[in-house]
Amino acid sequence: MIEEKSDVTGSASNTHVWYVDVAVCAGALQSWQDRAGALDVATRARLDQIKNDNERKTRFTVHSALRVLIEHTKGPSWRNKPLVYSSAGKPSMPGLGQSLSLSHTKGVGLIALSPSPTVGVDIEARHRCIKMQPERQ
């Protein structure tokens, strides 16, 4: 299941946020990826280095969902375009004209794509203790 929430107010209009349930949509996204080959070579290599099968499946599914979102909003000409990662691991796609963010934890992911200069999402497992000021949470 992929759920979309889009903000249509203020300067962040057309910001798309997707929640990705890996157990529900991994098969469909794997099938789409097999046909479309939408992931770029560097991202595939990065994902192939993950030794834990569940972690690799989660990240693959979330990255595939990101590619679906990019094609949904920008068109199929963006297929296979390389993602570039900052030193902190934040992905971007040069020339896209939108900022993107993705986060994942055990079996789920969160993706944002926005025309705003920066966007950020984070998803954590419920049991994890988050050390952050309450107003930032």
- Oligomer kind: single chain
Parts with pLDDT < 50 across at least 5 consecutive residues: 8-12
Helix content: 25-40%
> Using only CA atoms, what is the Rg?
15 Å
SS-based structural class?
A: alpha+beta
In words, what does this structure look like?
The protein has 137 residues and is α+β, with helices and mostly antiparallel strands. It has three helices and six strands, in the order ββαααββββ. The strands form two sheets. Strands 1-2-6-5 form a four-stranded antiparallel beta sheet. A two-stranded antiparallel ribbon has the order 3-4. A hairpin with a 2-residue loop joins β5 and β6. The radius of gyration is 15 Å and the shape is globular. It starts with a strand and ends in a 23-residue tail after the last strand.
